[in-house]
Amino acid sequence: MELLKASDLVKRFGNTNAVNRINFYIEEGRCVSLLGPNGAGKTTTLKMLSGLLAPTSGSIDFKGEKARDLRPFIGYLPQYPAFYNWMSGKEFLVFAGQLAKLNRKEAEKRSEELLERVGLTNAKKRKIGGYSGGMKQRLGLAQALIHRPKLLILDEPVSALDPLGRREVLDMMREIKEETTILFSTHVLHDAEEISDDILIMHNGEIVISGSLGNVMEKYRQPILQIEFESQAADWLKSIASYSFISEVNTQGNKASIVLTDMVNGKQTLLKDIVDKKIPVRKFEISQTTLEDLFMKVVKA
Amino acid sequence: MTQWTVLYRKEMLEMIRNYKVLWIPIVFVLLGVMEPVSAYYMPEILDTLGGLPEGTILEMPTPTGTEVLMKVLSNYGMLGVLILVLGAMGVVSAERQSGVAGMVMMKPVPYSSYIISKWAGLVTITLISLFIGYVASWYYTSLLIETVAFEHIFQSVVIYSIWLVFVVTLTLFFSTIMKGNSSVAFVTIFVVFAISTVTSILGKYMEWSPATMTEHAGQVLLSGELDSSFLLAFITTIAIIIVVLISSINIFKHKELLE
Q1: B21 contacts in A (CB within 8 Å)?
Q2: Which of A39, A108, B15, B82 gives 20 to 30 Å between its CA and that of A122?
Q3: Which residues in chain A have their CB less than 8 angstroms from residue B10's CB?
Q4: What mean pLDDT, rounded, does chain A reach?
């Protein structure tokens, strides 16, 4: 079922359209990732969906109805969550819960639950001012969930964290995914590939690719050859570019990734070539283009 | 409990935790007590400090109680206003700057609740400080100089409080539209003193001005009676406070939070 639908959404800042007529929908129960380079308009889009920013034009429908105030249904974690540093973690959660119209008792109970869940029970009485970045992120996640929102929106939830903190937040998201719909933005493609069901790729304020992760990968997937040389082999790479089955050659130091149109034929021809010309090869691997390749292609186009 | 009360309680709790609820009243008490004490001990102070040539006879009439209390009000008008503005300058701007205002507003909180709770918090601390300070001043005045009728005191402090409420409302307004704390304080103080100065220069044409509240407060203290122009000034002041609050809410609504 369609939970949220954005139609012709535009946000204008001065003379530039940060978000330029985007259309998309989010299905209930899915985990959707919004990808795009910095400045693509991800944060602006998320803020409009969370009700913090009024769109210049366009509309947002929630459960098929034109929504006036989305805030009761949405939990939002901004990229840089801020708190009252003089409050303790628990105090802030209770405060946030009461603002979301829970009564004091409910807010207390829910806060305890969430503190337990995000692993802050031991720090609940400490001042937020003394929390680490990872702890603040987890507290931010807890405050977003306090009123059991229908849609959880996370803006770059893991970008500012160290590998350990990233792992923790991703694991939590995987759990939360079972209960509520998640929309999160990221530029770490690996994370998107790991936990999302659907992806939206934004570039220059527009949505360029959308669909379920599987479908998108299927549709844009291309066979690829990855060769690692013992020394630079620029000459050879130049010479093979003329073969008809090669559509693209990318070199990075001693590594080259070659996009092929005809894998069976191309593989044999190239292997033979390597043997004939005695090219020193360390690795020869057949694989598929990843989300990252697709992303790079979209963004550079 | 409505969201408004939650926010108001948070304001009060914050002022307790950062000791504002302590030091602002203390400043008002000091300002209030210093006046009668220094008036009473002035001859002795001059004596001990010396500097006067031998044989100078200095006639220093001890001021009356009302005179002392009027001096206290004028101190509140300068230093008291300064302290209140400095204490209140970050009320919205600091929360916008840190991003926590956005964290509050992404919960279904009406924009008006946010601004009005801030305003109520400021008014509370202002009234507490003014009343405590003024009562202390009255106590010392009656101890050292002479007793002034309490109902005059009460009326004048109520009238004076309207002026201070006007000042903190302006601070809240500038704190909503601007970002830097110091520029908020600077602009507010500039505007407040401009209003006071213009009012005292063009007295005749400015009978409606909120700044006349300070004069009315003194008037009541002296004679116990209200000037006829009080009603006009009272109505315009309340009207201006309401208009400023409403525009603060509307401006806040259109500010981008969480940049």
Answers
A1: none
A2: B15
A3: 84, 95
A4: 88
User: Across chain B, where does the E strand assignment appear?
Assistant: none
Tell me whether residues B256 and A53 touch, CB distance under 8 A.
yes
Query: Which positions in chain A touch B1 (Cβ < 8 Å)?
Result: 98, 103-104
Look at residue B136 in the predicted model and tell me its pLDDT.
Answer: 94
pLDDT at B55 over 70: no
Q: Of all residues in chain A, what percent carry a pLDDT higher than 90?
A: 40
Residue B56 lies in a domain: no
Q: Which fold has domain A2-212?
A: Rossmann fold (3.40.50)
Q: How far is CA A193 from the centre of its chain?
A: 8
Contact B106 A86 (CB under 8 A): no
Beta strands A223-229 and A57-62 are unpaired
- Rounded to an integer, what distance in angstroms lies between the CA atom of residue A93 and that of residue A146? 7
d(CA A295, CA A88): 41
State the Cα–Cα distance between residues A131 and A16, nearest whole angstrom.
Answer: 38
> Cβ separation of B106 and A72 shorter than 8 Å?
no
Comparing A2-212 with A221-300, is the CATH topology the same?
no
- Residue, of B187 and B226, whose pLDDT is higher: B187
E strand or H helix that includes residue B227 = none
- Residue-level pLDDT at A245: 82
Residue B52 lies in a domain: no
C-alpha B233/C-alpha A28 separation (Å) is 59
What is the band of A63 on the pLDDT scale with cuts at 50, 70, 90?
Answer: confident
Give the mean pLDDT of A230-237: 80
B156 within some domain: yes
The superfamily CATH assigns to domain A221-300 is YebC, transcriptional regulation domain (3.30.70.980)
Mapping DSSP to helix (H, G, I), strand (E, B) and coil, where does residue A243 land?
coil
In A, what residues contact B, Cβ < 8 A?
47, 50-54, 69, 71-72, 74, 76, 78, 80-84, 86, 95-96, 98-101, 103-104, 143, 147
Q: Are A100 and A146 in contact (CB under 8 A)?
A: yes
Is-above-0.90 flag for pTM?
Answer: no
Task: Give B102's contacts in chain A (Cβ within 8 Å).
Answer: 52, 78, 82
Of all residues in chain B, the percent with pLDDT exceeding 90 is 62
Three-state secondary structure call for residue B153: helix
The ipTM is 0.89
- Flag whether pLDDT at B198 surpasses 80: yes
Nearest chain B residue to A92, by CA? B10
- Is B50 inside any structural domain? no
